[in-house]
Amino acid sequence: MSSPVLTVMTAAVRKAARSLQRDYGELANLQVSQKAPGDYVTAADQRVDKFLREELAKVRPGYAFLTEETGVVPGTDPEHRFIIDPIDGTMNFMHSVPFFAITIALERKGELVAAITYNPITDEMYSAEKGGGAFLNNKRMRVAQRRDIHDTLVSYEMPHRGGKDLPLSRAELSVLQGRVVGIRGTGSAALSLAYVAAGRFDAMVCRNINQWDIAAGILLVKEAGGFTSDPDGDKNPMDTGNILATNADLLPQFKDALSKARET
Fold first, then answer.
1. Which of 104, 134, 201, 253 could share a disulfide with 149, CB 3.0–4.6 Å?
2. Per-position DSSP letters for 199-257, written without gaps between them
């Protein structure tokens, strides 16, 4: 049974998804602007952002918000905050690639306690609550149980043009290509983390990412039995913006591989 707040989050996401399902594939009609080199926003991002804030505020008045399109929205409740990315994978959405998601996490006193990541095209709803497990369309999820890095399929998100750490990312890809079975770049950190939680990817690595891209995924992975960490140490990815997600056996192996890339 979902808690009342997760039920509220799920309902809001499903309502918001209807407009994205209508807009998907309408390439000629999308209104797009550029925020920075390689970083775009569509009118659909802004519309979904506004809708989610309004829907959630109706049932949880006073909660604060942190969203990609609005930034920090203070609330009267100092203990709760919704973290929202209205479309994670905007570039995929703009090109009619069906790999993007609406993602929401809820923080209570700075701790992630509820999460939703939803792909409106595949109708896959990933959800988790602290201590309650992680689910894909109500079916329990578990991270993959492979124990050797040489057997793994990995999601690695390359920086966009003008992004930070391009030389480091190239070095990490080179090292990983010598150790893993395959590497995929998905264009959506939120969905890649959900795929780790579902056991589809064995690991996920991403650098210079925002809190709204990874907040829900961190809880999904944790509740599916996995671990998230900064690739370079033991700091919280929500603080550093760098994330490695995998299972307990693979975590030190991936950290070792990524450390070799930093030495080159």
1. 253
2. TSSSEEEE-S--HHHHHHHHHHHHHTT-EEE-TTSSS-HHHHS-EEEE-TTTHHHHHHH
Phi/psi at 155 (5° precision) = -95, 125
Cβ-contact 106, 5 below 8 angstroms:
yes
Instruction: Read off the DSSP letter of residue 160.
Output: P
Share of the chain above pLDDT 90, in %: 79
Give all domains of the chain, ordered by start, each with its CATH number: 4-140 (3.30.540.10), 149-263 (3.40.190.80)
Return the structure tokens found at 262: 């930093």
Spatial separation of the C-alpha atoms in residues 177 and 1, rounded to whole Å? 42
* C-alpha to C-alpha distances, 177 to 155, 157, 173, 208, 241, nearest whole angstrom: 12, 14, 6, 21, 23
User: What stretch of H or E contains 108?
Assistant: strand 101-108
CA 174 to chain centre: 24
**Mean pLDDT in residue range 8-34:** 80
| DSSP at 68 | T
Helix extents (H) in the chain: 4-23, 43-59, 90-94, 166-177, 189-197, 211-223, 237-240, 251-263
Q: CA separation (Å) from 97 to 15, 90, 117, 154, 200?
A: 21, 10, 17, 20, 19
Greater confidence (158 vs 116) lies with 116
159-179: per-residue pLDDT in tens?
776 667 788 999 999 999 999
Closest CA to 187 of 117, 45, 71, 87: 87
Strands 101-108 vs 111-119: parallel, antiparallel or unpaired: antiparallel
